[in-house]
What does this fold into?
Amino acid sequence: MNQTKPIRGRFAPSPSGRMHLGNLFAALLAWLDVRSLGGEMLLRMEDLDPDRCRPEYTLQLADDLRWLGLDWDLGWQADQPEFCQSSRTAYYEEAFHKLAREGLVYPCYCSRKELLAASAPHASDGARVYSGRCRSLSAREKAALEQSGRRPAWRVAVPEETIAFVDGNFGPQSEVLSRDCGDFILRRSDGVYAYQLAVAEDDGRMGITRVVRGWDLLSSTPRQIWLMGKLGYEPPAYCHAPLLCSPDGRRLSKRDRDLDMGVLRQKTTPEQLTGLLAYTAGLIDRPEPVRPYDLVKAFSWEKVGTQDREPPEISWKKQ
It folds into this structure.
């Protein structure tokens, strides 16, 4: 007898610095999406990059979410590192070898300069599509490259297949894998598993049925859907959210410390900040203090829409 999977969303931040207002905007929408459906929220720390992610950022990130009132039912706790990607290498290794046994994985010895020279820019956003130049290297050529000191990254060979899905906010989407993304990296030359493989494996193994994130990751979705199928998982439903951008159109980033939580917690209360975010998202008519749970019943993606917007002006004083 088939049992319906529980509705399960996730918030999967990267602990590479203090969260900023754009991160909170996406987190609130992900939380409201799953709560409005009566589902569970899971917190996963995407700390794959050992050079950028630190344990102290992980603790601060969780504290900031709790401060805002965005709770979770499953996932990361201080004593449960299995919900950190840095502790899940064995799962990624298993997924990698499953794809390798199907003959889908090959080493790529290209330098960054060679990649830029040999890859075609994507028509829509300027991203470069790998030419596949290392797909057909002979054993002798591979040996010569390794003897010269080249350490390969590992790519997956994608087919000429169209992946189509309906995004819960942006509507119908489709991508021809070989044309629009090309053979993408599964494992870096330093042995660190890449984002696409880790996310596909984690979302599948953790039973995620709803993924809400910024639309800047919309182009990653077809390759993750394809990977999950190859790994034996059913892909989740996807809803991509608009971004908060500066007046010049630049996406907010941790690197630029755009309204990070260290500043926001000094300026506002959780209710004030939630109200500002909710107003910016189109969920309430005026910026007024609210709690996340106050917004659940009336949440709708139709209210949110797809248009990027500027961050709200933080004019309230903390009381």
In short: The radius of gyration is 21 Å. The first helix runs from residue 21 to 36.
